[in-house]
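hi! just following up on the protien thing from before. the input was this:
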Amino acid sequence: MAPRTSWLCLALALAPASLGAQTTPDLTQILARLERLERENRELTEQVRALQAQVGNTTPPPAPQSSPTIAEQLEIHQQRIEEQAQTKVEASQKFPIRFAGMALFNSFVNSRQSGGSDYPVTAAPTGVGHSGATLRQTILGLEFDGPQAILGGKVSGNVYMDFTSGGNALNLHLRTASVQIDWKTRTLSAGLEKPIFNPREPSSLGQVVVSPLTGAGNLWLWLPQVRAEQELAFTPNTGIRAQIGAVQTREIGPSLGSGTFETVRPSAEGRFNFHHKFDEGRRLEFAAGFHASTTHAGGFSIPSNLYSLDWFVNPSKRLEFTGVFYSGQNVAGLGSGTRQAYTISKSGGRTIGSRGGWGQFTLHTLPRLDFHFFTGQVDDRNADLGPGLIGKNLLFGGNAYFKLAPNVLAGIEATQLRTLYLGQGVRINNHYDLALAYLF
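and the predicted 3d structure came back as:
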């Protein structure tokens, strides 16, 4: 019986391969042959069951199940296709889209110099405290990967939004968006992003409406731009990434004087990042950047330029140090928070010089617990300012993240903001924040 059974299994295995190549009469003959083989197989099984019963085996093998018919197989495949269509997110152009973002709940307390803001970027000159809770810093995003583009490039992109501009109403506010094409060593992208010379971010679950340390050295403003990037590798672990592009600025009015101004202007920006990887847990990065544009206000052309240095160092897996320094003039339109860019008088427009930056230490202690300690400041040149304007804006503080689950974070944060008003002294605002974030 064993040779006959093996021949039977071989015939059943080869039957589907031969079915697709046969004509209708051949198919009828093959189906008849399969029915005959199945009948013989059942007879052999009955004989085995009888023999086992004779030798005392009271547990007969299960009866063989008949193979599903062609109609039944088609019905099964159709059901599976319908299930996939219900669970798959797909764009109209037939490429996949991923839903990403963060549901964020904040409860916060400010001292009396908040000026009525949830998270102020400067301490208000008059005392108005503000405390409360909000879900408006929740972020919703879409990430997508498209087909290959010209010369084998890979297309990808994203769109991120929040609810910060709508008050209690359900209004979405566009944060960032980009579309990019990546080749092996170069990238071309367009979208709404941070300035090219300042891509780094401090860590905070408290200040998400705008970038953390806004007004304290982080020039963050999301601006329309087009950029090109080129990677130059010296060794497998060492290289330079060069970025250059055109950015549309968001101009603001004069700090002193008056006059009409163009609200947007073109600018050139660039960044050159040297990076070295020591091993899987340690790396070093230093980058130099620049910004150059011209403001048109009050009938005058006023230069806006700066240079920057930024870095990232992690000498061990548990310790990171990152930060930015910049120096320039007429830079408030890039997101300094003090909104002090230039002044206008009868003799012409005059830029306001500014220096600033920020730094952050990160400690990865326990597998679920991280600490961040940060500080930053904007220091505008006092000689370019008048009474009542901000000479210096300083923030320092820290936070802790505890991972409740792989995608759930609890955070606690405390900061102090010190704003120096010329001729009025220093105003101080303390901020305390509890946050719960669900990442998706």
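The first helix runs from residue 2 to 19.
The CA atoms of residues 114 and 390 lie 16 Å apart.
cheers
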